[in-house]
């Protein structure tokens, strides 16, 4: 499509947007009385209006039923998590039995590593991406040390080539082959949090398996953002947080995928707790652990229902719309944002933006990470003061993620206008 950098054109795209009514389903913060342009749905999604109803329902059931709520609440608490299996299985491409919701992301990845990282003196290495999200790096280091290995030896990072921002698939595959029969686990962020690069999970998973390793994915930036086929790709496990693209609220529950092929493999260890125990016998308080047949068998504790309720509200919105429509809008919206950035760069001397996210649509999703060569942190601060919420990453990058659920094409146009002003204003502190 030939884009134009005008308000009229942007409004035209909004008028044709099949998801436009969903914008009103979200609550936008305001700056100087004006609704913000929100680019950080990749960090904390906006609050859907319907979420409050879901939380209130639990609060009311708790008030009116107290302990009886476990079995007699509107949505009984003791198996509240089972409501996620069907809708989430569509969002991430799994079977309902492969999905559970529990804990938080890093905790779930640790639990998955308890199962899928069983190093031996020969096969003990983990392949991950260079500059993985810090929580993942700490997790790898602590897991490796816990098993008595040396992180410097056991953790193998796939590097970017000199002068390149993204990791090449061929380099991932070459590294897997090189580590070969020393490789125990491949665990990578499916969408890189910094650059927005989307990895070819299908190909990498197959390569990891060929080397005899397990393959898992951290889907923090992928769930609710890209098309996933976890079951068909044969992914062993995956986990994601729900508060980024999935709009479930700060620090809320994490989703977890365990492939069917592992559900009944009793050779794989796991950390157990009573909520992973055979559902119908859970309250018999027997000493022998008999896991639920499915991802729910990795559950440990009583469910955090007040954290699950907002996620359920969100998952139901995703089910109404479906990933295909979200992805269609995401691609158009992100391309329009890319166009706007290039326009501003052309118009304004010294803008010098470099989009470090791949330009190829198969390798990117919602996010554009922009290296501000000609600008610094003051431009970011100017944007924030003027109602454009982005985030800053050292050394000089802003990340822009126009979430298709609630961002409009006019937002992208308006952002371009604010951006231009921000670059032209010499002393940004005066504005
Ligand atoms: C956001 C994010 C996390 C956050 O982990 P929590 O345990 O939810 O705090 C982990 N990994 C990646 C790749 C992320 O982007």
Automatic annotation (TrEMBL):
<feature type="binding site">
    <location>
        <position position="106"/>
    </location>
    <ligand>
        <name>pyridoxal 5'-phosphate</name>
    </ligand>
</feature>
<feature type="binding site">
    <location>
        <begin position="133"/>
        <end position="136"/>
    </location>
    <ligand>
        <name>pyridoxal 5'-phosphate</name>
    </ligand>
</feature>
<dbReference type="InterPro" id="IPR010111">
    <property type="entry name" value="Kynureninase"/>
</dbReference>
<feature type="binding site">
    <location>
        <position position="221"/>
    </location>
    <ligand>
        <name>pyridoxal 5'-phosphate</name>
    </ligand>
</feature>
<dbReference type="InterPro" id="IPR015422">
    <property type="entry name" value="PyrdxlP-dep_Trfase_small"/>
</dbReference>
<dbReference type="GO" id="GO:0009435">
    <property type="term" value="P:NAD+ biosynthetic process"/>
</dbReference>
<comment type="similarity">
    <text>Belongs to the kynureninase family.</text>
</comment>
<protein>
    <recommendedName>
        <fullName>Kynureninase</fullName>
        <ecNumber>3.7.1.3</ecNumber>
    </recommendedName>
</protein>
<comment type="pathway">
    <text>Amino-acid degradation; L-kynurenine degradation; L-alanine and anthranilate from L-kynurenine: step 1/1.</text>
</comment>
<dbReference type="Pfam" id="PF00266">
    <property type="entry name" value="Aminotran_5"/>
</dbReference>
<dbReference type="GO" id="GO:0097053">
    <property type="term" value="P:L-kynurenine catabolic process"/>
</dbReference>
<dbReference type="Pfam" id="PF22580">
    <property type="entry name" value="KYNU_C"/>
</dbReference>
<dbReference type="GO" id="GO:0019805">
    <property type="term" value="P:quinolinate biosynthetic process"/>
</dbReference>
<keyword id="KW-0378">Hydrolase</keyword>
<dbReference type="GO" id="GO:0030170">
    <property type="term" value="F:pyridoxal phosphate binding"/>
</dbReference>
<dbReference type="GO" id="GO:0005737">
    <property type="term" value="C:cytoplasm"/>
</dbReference>
<dbReference type="InterPro" id="IPR000192">
    <property type="entry name" value="Aminotrans_V_dom"/>
</dbReference>
<dbReference type="GO" id="GO:0043420">
    <property type="term" value="P:anthranilate metabolic process"/>
</dbReference>
<dbReference type="GO" id="GO:0019441">
    <property type="term" value="P:L-tryptophan catabolic process to kynurenine"/>
</dbReference>
<feature type="binding site">
    <location>
        <position position="218"/>
    </location>
    <ligand>
        <name>pyridoxal 5'-phosphate</name>
    </ligand>
</feature>
<comment type="subunit">
    <text>Homodimer.</text>
</comment>
<feature type="binding site">
    <location>
        <position position="274"/>
    </location>
    <ligand>
        <name>pyridoxal 5'-phosphate</name>
    </ligand>
</feature>
<feature type="binding site">
    <location>
        <position position="243"/>
    </location>
    <ligand>
        <name>pyridoxal 5'-phosphate</name>
    </ligand>
</feature>
<feature type="binding site">
    <location>
        <position position="302"/>
    </location>
    <ligand>
        <name>pyridoxal 5'-phosphate</name>
    </ligand>
</feature>
<dbReference type="GO" id="GO:0030429">
    <property type="term" value="F:kynureninase activity"/>
</dbReference>
<keyword id="KW-0662">Pyridine nucleotide biosynthesis</keyword>
<feature type="domain" description="Aminotransferase class V">
    <location>
        <begin position="161"/>
        <end position="250"/>
    </location>
</feature>
<feature type="modified residue" description="N6-(pyridoxal phosphate)lysine">
    <location>
        <position position="244"/>
    </location>
</feature>
<feature type="binding site">
    <location>
        <position position="105"/>
    </location>
    <ligand>
        <name>pyridoxal 5'-phosphate</name>
    </ligand>
</feature>
<comment type="function">
    <text>Catalyzes the cleavage of L-kynurenine (L-Kyn) and L-3-hydroxykynurenine (L-3OHKyn) into anthranilic acid (AA) and 3-hydroxyanthranilic acid (3-OHAA), respectively.</text>
</comment>
<keyword id="KW-0663">Pyridoxal phosphate</keyword>
<comment type="pathway">
    <text>Cofactor biosynthesis; NAD(+) biosynthesis; quinolinate from L-kynurenine: step 2/3.</text>
</comment>
<dbReference type="InterPro" id="IPR015424">
    <property type="entry name" value="PyrdxlP-dep_Trfase"/>
</dbReference>
<dbReference type="InterPro" id="IPR015421">
    <property type="entry name" value="PyrdxlP-dep_Trfase_major"/>
</dbReference>
């Amino acid at each position: 499509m030939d884009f134009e950098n005008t308000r009229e054109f942007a409004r035209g795209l909004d008028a044709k947007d099949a998801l436009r009514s969903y914008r009103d389903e979200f609550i936008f913060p305001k700056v100087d009385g004006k609704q913000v342009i929100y680019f950080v749905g990749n960090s904390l999604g906006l609050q859907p209006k319907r979420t409050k109803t879901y939380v209130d329902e639990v609060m009311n059931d708790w008030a009116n039923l107290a302990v009886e709520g476990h079995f007699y609440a509107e949505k009984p608490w003791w198996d509240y998590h089972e409501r996620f299996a069907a809708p989430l299985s569509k969002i991430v491409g799994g079977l309902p039995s492969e999905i559970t919701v529990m804990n938080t992301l890093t905790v779930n990845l640790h639990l998955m590593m308890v199962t899928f990282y069983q190093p031996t003196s020969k096969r003990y290495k983990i392949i991950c991406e260079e500059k993985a999200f810090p929580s993942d790096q700490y997790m790898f280091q602590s897991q490796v040390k816990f098993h008595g290995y040396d992180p410097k030896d056991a953790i193998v990072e796939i590097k970017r080539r000199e002068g390149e921002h993204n990791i090449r698939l061929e380099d991932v595959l070459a590294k897997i082959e090189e580590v070969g029969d020393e490789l125990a686990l491949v665990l990578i962020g499916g969408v890189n949090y910094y650059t927005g690069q989307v990895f070819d999970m299908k190909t990498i998973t197959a390569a990891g398996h060929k080397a005899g390793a397990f393959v898992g994915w951290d889907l923090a930036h992928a769930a609710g953002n890209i098309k996933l086929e976890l079951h068909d790709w044969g992914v062993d496990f995956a986990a994601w947080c729900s508060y980024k693209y999935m709009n479930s609220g700060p620090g809320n529950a994490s989703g977890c995928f365990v492939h069917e092929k592992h559900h009944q493999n009793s050779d794989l260890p796991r950390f157990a707790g009573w909520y992973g125990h055979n559902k119908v016998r859970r309250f018999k308080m027997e000493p022998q652990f008999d896991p639920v047949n499915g991802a729910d068998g990795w559950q440990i504790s009583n469910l955090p229902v007040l954290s699950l309720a907002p996620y359920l509200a969100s998952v139901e919105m995703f089910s109404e719309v479906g990933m295909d429509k979200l992805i269609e809008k995401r691609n158009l919206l992100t391309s329009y944002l890319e166009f706007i950035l290039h326009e501003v760069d052309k118009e304004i001397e010294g803008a010098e933006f470099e989009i470090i996210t791949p330009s190829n649509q198969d390798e990117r999703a919602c996010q554009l990470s922009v290296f501000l060569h000609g600008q610094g942190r003051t431009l970011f601060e100017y944007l924030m003061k003027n109602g454009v919420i982005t985030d800053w990453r050292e050394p000089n990058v802003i990340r822009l993620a126009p979430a298709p659920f609630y961002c409009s094409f006019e937002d992208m146009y308006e952002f371009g206008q604010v951006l231009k002003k921000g670059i032209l204003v010499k002393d940004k502190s005066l504005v």
